[in-house]
Task: inverse folding
């Protein structure tokens, strides 16, 4: 009782004092836990953060205070995939190969031969050079392709040229005359384009032979000129299909005939 009375007269005990920060506040454990849960706890000092980081294991083997890698950097700068270990960056690409060092395959298509299905119709002129009917015909062509742009060729085409009806008391006879065009030579130029399609134009000429429909008439011989526009489409290493339109002029004696011809063809190349 005497001790309690003396303590009450002396007042509360003084708290220990820090020579730098002043009196030290002593809080109950419950108060410290409550402040921590509410986010009101004391923030660690930079020195404490540094000491804590130094005590942690360094799994990556690098500097824990180094800045993170740039996610947009080139792989050669050491950017690793998320979750990967310290793998080495990709090696630099090899130097480019000179174009002259790339081997070229053998160019096929120096020689070609083709079979053509044609439809020919008259445009104008006078008989006998002028055609009198629209007719189906056929042709064969061949040639030598000098390079990928220029080629020399020749061809033979044949189709009905005129039609004659002869009637008697008991029957009607239809006689047909035919025209054969021998293209001695033509120059074909291909467009310098890449791909499977080869557009071309060509010009040439030769001889024309007319077998008249009228009985007793002799074979007419004349000349012919041609100009065509078309394309070849490669469907295999040595096979093409093509289409073209052709203008032809025929000269028979004093007459000149003009005709137009459409054609599709199948060609083999060596």
Result:
């Amino acid at each position: 009782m005497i001790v309690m009375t003396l303590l009450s007269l002396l007042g509360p005990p003084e708290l220990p004092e820090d020579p730098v920060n002043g009196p030290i506040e002593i809080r109950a454990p419950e108060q410290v836990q409550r402040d921590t849960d509410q986010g009101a706890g004391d923030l660690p000092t930079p020195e404490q953060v540094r000491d804590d980081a130094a005590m942690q294991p360094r799994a990556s083997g690098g500097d824990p205070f180094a800045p993170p890698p740039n996610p947009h950097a080139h792989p050669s700068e050491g950017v690793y995939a998320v979750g990967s270990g310290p793998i080495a960056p990709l090696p630099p690409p090899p130097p480019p190969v000179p174009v002259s060092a790339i081997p070229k395959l053998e160019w096929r298509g120096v020689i070609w031969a083709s079979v053509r299905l044609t439809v020919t119709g008259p445009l104008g002129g006078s008989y006998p050079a002028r055609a009198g009917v629209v007719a189906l015909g056929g042709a064969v062509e061949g040639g030598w392709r000098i390079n990928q742009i220029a080629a020399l060729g020749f061809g033979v085409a044949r189709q009905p040229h005129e039609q004659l009806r002869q009637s008697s008391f008991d029957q009607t006879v239809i006689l047909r005359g035919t025209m054969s065009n021998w293209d001695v030579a033509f120059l074909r130029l291909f467009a310098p384009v890449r791909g499977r399609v080869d557009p071309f134009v060509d010009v040439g000429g030769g001889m024309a032979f007319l077998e008249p429909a009228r009985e007793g008439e002799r074979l007419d011989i004349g000349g012919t000129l041609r100009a065509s526009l078309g394309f070849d489409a490669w469907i295999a290493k040595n096979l093409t299909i093509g289409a073209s339109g052709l203008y032809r002029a025929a000269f028979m004696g004093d007459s000149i005939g003009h005709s137009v011809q459409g054609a599709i063809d199948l060609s083999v190349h060596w």
